[in-house]
Each structure stands twice: as structure tokens, then as C-alpha cells.
Amino acid sequence: MIAVYGSLAPDVLTTCFELPWPFACASGHNLKGAHLTSMHPKVATTGAMPLSTREMAPDALGQKVVVVGLGYVGLPLAVALARKFPTVGLDIDQRRVTELEAGHDRTGEIDRDRLDASTLSLASDPAICPPADFYIVTVPTPIDGANRPDLRIVEAASRTIGAMLPAAVAEGRTPVVVYESTVYPGVTEDICAPILEQYSGLLCGRDFFLGYSPERINPGDREHTIDKITKVVSGQTPETLERVAQLYASITSGGVFRAASIKAAEAAKVIENAQRDINIAFMNEISQIFSAMDISIWDVLAAARTKWNFLPFGPGLVGGHCIGVDPYYLSHRAEQLGLDPRVILAGRGINDSMAGWVAQQLHAKRGKKPGSVLVLGLTFKENIPDLRNSKVADLVTALGRLGHGVRVHDAHADAEEAIHEYGIPLVADAFKRKYDMVLLAVPHREYLAMGGEALRGLLKKGGTLADLKGELGEAADWTL
Ligand SMILES: NC(=O)c1ccc[n+]([C@@H]2O[C@H](COP(=O)([O-])OP(=O)(O)OC[C@H]3O[C@@H](n4cnc5c(N)ncnc54)[C@H](O)[C@@H]3O)[C@@H](O)[C@H]2O)c1
After folding, report:
1. Does the C-beta of 327 come closer than 6 Å to ligand 1?
2. Atom 27, ligand 1: residue with shortest CA distance
3. Strand, coil or helix: what is 31?
4. Which of the 8 DSSP states describes residue 92?
């Protein structure tokens, strides 16, 4: 059962007494102009008086949590925390909150049944978000056009939380602000803490404390979920570390790892992704080398992987907002320190240029003659709707520049978002035509279920079935 802070309607004030903590806390705030609605109209009215401050005392009611940012990371975390603690999920995107209220998670991470069963409360307006013991930040940390960290969103979230802290302290709590957003070492303590102090008028390390716990969620992965993975935790003081550790230990069976410092935890996250990026870059580089020698990379890898310590990476397009972005956070900090992070940036360079190289390969495969192309899949990886930083979009653009007429189909992506992000229309009737080339760019399960022969059926005579990741085996005419 999820309660939502939205429009201030009479039915919500009744709901609030069914869900004492958030609504009672909200009652201690200025609700004027607030938008307060309930996802659960069936909840019965149980009273009309707000809970008293005494009833709200932290000792009496235990730990409370606010999760700021309900995306791929924040929503699963908030739902998991809500099983153990009174938890509010705050997101500035009203559309997102309204969708969640209706039981729809557009990221596909939490299904309708789990949303309906959750006791998570939702808020779109920080002004009515109740005081808490933990404020957890799960907002995006992208890069700008020059591949520099863009911290504006995490800074804005820090301003929001800063303004919320005094109410928590006034209730006798000692709040901990835990950052989960991926950053470079130093952002939590050197950039966010001063903002929290400025907007709260409180002292960090006395009135409130900092923690950092990197997120390892892997969208679409139903095995390594938040309730099973080992969670790295860190805190500003030994006591804060223990509080953060206890919080996360209560929601995962994978245990917690207490990092030596906040900076060590920040650094651990950023190198987890940089390591993957560099290894994939090596795979992409050797793909290009072996392609020039007419040797299949897949044949090479099949042989090499029989060695006990050969790492099982593969070539491909590196998109999304983690692996293709986080290394730039680390390289930025390295450059600030006067260092030259050559390996990290070389990896980024190779991976960022891979889409253009693939387009050239496909063009050559077609005898450098432009034709009609159907690209299957636009998302940054299979079986999820996430279009952010899709390198398939670069590939589509590159094929277009080479003169090909490209149509794109995606079984998971949102058509409006594809237009908004890339100006690429997703065609619904893709399978009614025939093409000179069909490219399986993202192996969504729907395409794999069709199988190689059905995909070949979409080709004109003499057409090419291209299979970026080598999923179709012998059925394909081209792969990396
Ligand atoms: N998605 C992943 O696979 C993944 C994995 C590990 C770490 N991370 C990191 O976690 C962080 C969040 O990523 P994500 O994929 O969940 O992002 P996301 O874009 O899916 O979700 C972020 C949410 O935050 C909301 N938001 C933005 N500013 C806000 C504010 N000031 N107050 C309240 N809500 C706000 C947005 O509306 C959005 O719903 C990033 O730093 C990312 O690098 C992501």
C-alpha cells in the first residue's frame, strides 16, 4: 500500500491517520498549497486529529527514512526500506509520482503487485515531506557536453535536504544524509556537505552526519537485487558508519561492507564501473584488430575463456549512464589533481568511437551501397526501457550519414522518449516490410524469441542479417 503526497484533498487528510508517520509529520509542516493525494482511496477514515509531537518522538517510533529520487536506483531501494522502516520516496517529477501512485513503474524494476503491496509513501513536494533520521540521495549524476561531471542535480537535492534537516533536528533526531548517487571521491564531503550546512544553518558532524553507500543495482537483472547484494557502506564517524550499516544490513541478505572512509566508498563505486569500461574497451580494440585479420572475435574468446584466469568480458557498445559516464567522474578528479588518466580516457575513447566503427563495417558489408536498414533495439542494453546515452542512436545516425534509410524498432523503449532524446521515431509496423539489412543491435528477449530464421524473413533477396553481439549464431551474416 503506497501513500502519496500530492494534492491536498480531504480524503488524504483522512488517509493520513491510517499512515501515522508521514502524514503526522506532514501535519507539523506548512501544508498550504501542497499537493496531497492517496494511492489508496479504500483506506478507511480512522480519525480527524493530528498525532501529537510526543507520539512522533523518534525513540517511540524508531528510524524513519526519506529517499530522494525515485528512479532505477531510488525506487527499489525505497520499496525495500519501506518493508522495515516508515519510508517516504520524494521525487520532483510529478508525472513519475502519479504513475507510481497508479501502480506503474516505467523503469520496469518493481511490478504492480509489489508496488501495491508496499507501504512506501510518495511525495512530490519536499515542503510536506516529514522529518526523518535518514535522507538517502539517489538522483542522477550525468556528464555535460564536454564529458565533465554535472553535479547540478545532486547539488539541488542537497539544497532540498538541507532545508529539511532543521525540522528533523528540532524533533530530537540526529539525521544522517546518505549519498548513493555515483560521484568522484570528495563530492559528498567537500561539495554536498557545505550545501547541506548552508541550507540548514546546521553544523555537519555535530547536528547531522554524512554517509555514502554506492549503488550496485543492475537494471533488468533479477538475480543481483538490492535485497541480495553486498552493500558497501561508509560514515563520517564510527557511530554514523554503524547507523548506516545497520540500516542497510536490515534490507539485504548479502551483508554490508564497512568501507574505511566516505572517500574510499565513493572511489570503490567509480572504479567498479571504470574497470568494466576499460575491459570492454580492450575487447572492442581486439575486435577491430581481429576483424582486419578476418578472425572472429567470438572464436578467439571461446578459446581464450578456457583459461582459468581469463576475464569473461565481451565487445559491444557501451551506453547508459553508468559505465560510459562514471569513468569521466574519476578522470575529471584526476585531471584536477594534475594527473593524466591515460588508461581511463583511452578506454572511453575506444568505446565512444565503437558505434561509428560498427557503422563503417556494416556499410562495407553492404558493398558501400546505401540501402534500407531495420535496426532492432535502441535502449542501452537488453530487456530494459532505458534509453539514456544509447550508443545505438549514434550507430543509427552514422548509418544515416552514410546514406542508408534506417528504421528503428524497440520492444521496450518509449516512443515519445526516443523522439525527445534522439529525434528517432520508433516504428510499430517494422515487421511488415523487407529490408536490405536487419541489424539486431540490442538482443531484447522478444527478438531472440523470433529467432534467426524469422529475422532472415525480413530481408530482401541478397539482404544482410547483422547481429552485433553474436546472439544468433550461424543465422547471421555479420557480427562483431
Ligand atoms: N541505473 C543504474 O543502473 C545505476 C546503478 C548504480 C548507480 N547508479 C547511480 O544512481 C544515481 C541515480 O541513477 P538512476 O538511474 O536511478 O537515475 P534516474 O534518472 O532513473 O532517477 C532519478 C530520479 O531522481 C529524480 N530527481 C532528480 N532531481 C531530484 C530532486 N532534486 N529531488 C527529488 N528527486 C529528484 C528524477 O525525477 C528521477 O525520477 C546516479 O548517480 C547513477 O549514476 C545508477
Report:
1. no
2. 139
3. coil
4. S
* Count, residues in the chain: 480
Q: How far is CA 108 from CA 105, 220, 412, 440, in A?
A: 6, 8, 10, 22
Mode of pairing for the β-strands spanning 37-38 and 3-5: antiparallel
In the reported structure, the alpha carbon of residue 70 is separated from the centroid of ligand 1 by a whole-number distance in angstroms of 7
Report how far ligand 1's centroid is from the alpha carbon of 142 (Å): 9
Please state the atom number of ligand 1 nearest to the C-alpha of residue 75: 16
CA distance 201 to 178: 19
Instruction: Determine the Cα–Cα distance for residues 364 and 358; give it in Å rounded to an integer.
Output: 10
Strands 459-467 and 435-440, sheet pairing: parallel
Beta carbon of 69 within 6 Å of any ligand 1 atom: yes
Tell me how far the alpha carbon of residue 108 lies from the centroid of ligand 1, in angstroms.
Answer: 15
Ligand 1: which of 73, 199, 270 to mutate, most ligand atoms within 8 Å of CB?
73
pTM attached to this predicted model: 0.86
C-alpha to C-alpha distance for 468 and 480, rounded to whole angstroms:
6
* 342-365 vs 262-292: helix crossing angle, rounded to 10: 30
User: Domain residue spans in the chain?
Assistant: 3-259, 297-479
Instruction: Give CATH for domain 297-479.
Output: 3.40.50.720
Is the CB of 143 within 6 Å of ligand 1?
no
The one-digit pLDDT tens for each residue of the chain (480 residues) are: 555 543 333 333 223 323 344 443 333 222 222 332 333 322 222 222 222 232 333 334 479 999 999 999 999 999 999 999 999 999 999 999 999 999 999 999 999 999 999 999 999 999 989 999 999 999 999 999 999 999 999 999 999 999 999 999 999 999 999 999 999 999 999 999 999 999 999 999 999 999 999 998 888 888 888 888 999 999 999 999 999 999 999 999 999 999 999 999 999 999 999 999 999 999 999 999 999 999 999 999 999 999 999 999 999 999 998 999 999 999 999 999 999 999 999 999 999 999 999 999 999 999 999 999 999 999 999 999 999 999 999 999 999 999 999 999 999 999 999 999 999 999 999 999 999 999 999 999 999 999 999 999 999 999 999 999 999 999 999 999
- Which CATH code for domain 3-259? 3.40.50.720
16 as an active site residue: the answer is no
Mutate to test the pocket of ligand 1, among 222, 321, 328, 417 (most ligand atoms within 8 A of CB): 321
* Contact indicator for 153, 128 with CB cutoff of 8 Å: no
Q: Atom of ligand 1 at shortest distance to CA of 322?
A: 43
Tell whether ligand 1 has an atom less than 6 A from the beta carbon of residue 94. no
Atom nearest to 73 CA in ligand 1: 16
The domains spanning 3-259 and 297-479 adopt the same CATH topology: yes
